[in-house]
Amino acid sequence: SFITMVFLVTLWVMPFVEEDSDAYREGAPRGYFVKAESQWMGLKPGFIKWWNKEPVVALDVTNPAATEWFVGRLKALQAKHGIDGFKFDAGEPCFLPPNFQTFAPIIHPTDYTRLYIERVCSQFEIAEVRTGHRTQSLPLMMRMGDRFSTWDIGNGLQSLIPTLLTSGLLGYPYCLPDMVGGNAYFGRKPDIELMVRWAQANALMPAVQFSIAPWDLSSKADKLCTEAMLIRRRAMNRIKDLAHNATNALEPICRPMWWLDPEDEETFHIFDQFAVGQDMIVAPVVEKGRRSRDVYLTEGRWKDMAEPGIVYEGKQWLRDLHAPLSKLPMFLRIPEVPM
Length: 339
What we know:
This protein is an alpha/beta fold. It is about 25% helix and about 15% strand.
């Protein structure tokens, strides 16, 4: 089984409970769910619709007894089946019924999110969430929202780097990008090129997750995605050191280009490159069909990590840098030698 192998096993959890469940029968009489006086969308008072079929009620996270009960059920599940952690989904106030009523009043609907993260999600050593509100101090992976298997900047591959950088700047350095290749929604699966470029773009971000197996696309996709993950393996000590530093300083692991030189105006509008710490620049190809791209290097001397022996002076653009499908453009700063 997975549990007896090297894998850590997590389960997908939402703060929702269906009416026809042991949890509802146990929790409802105790007042553990958010209430509402009136019906909504033809549902019973307090029930909501979500992305699955059956209506549900939401856990009342303002009630300490309710959250203690919910967490207790999850910990019992962990102990019984050897589960390592949880993927906590939802938690946004949009999943509350109109004119909702909670055990304790909340000043703003986003307080529901904060309490969900604080009182439920953060109680586990291994956990990821997809939402947050004033929860930067908690040791959690912050997952990007679901991505489409497309190239566009709206919600495809090109949206990955801007979202990563925004997450870090907001104080959530442990950003978990969505599945490599996207979610294949609406029957649209990634082709080989999109899958490979996505793996390359994600390779040096704080975390990686696959859902679509590259080998299900082709042996070529498998080979090139494996090469991207080998790049990650070689950089893991750097990523781990930055992750450890972020626990104290909250500095992003992956940083916008202007972080390297805040006075260099050329960096202000770059949204398709990022830095890993202060000494590595990553410039993935995120446009369909492209086999070259422009790359900006900040001040200093930079070694081309994909082309051994090539060194560039910084504070300049490298125009039309060759980047075949097998190449992830990345550069390592050469330390200055003291005089």
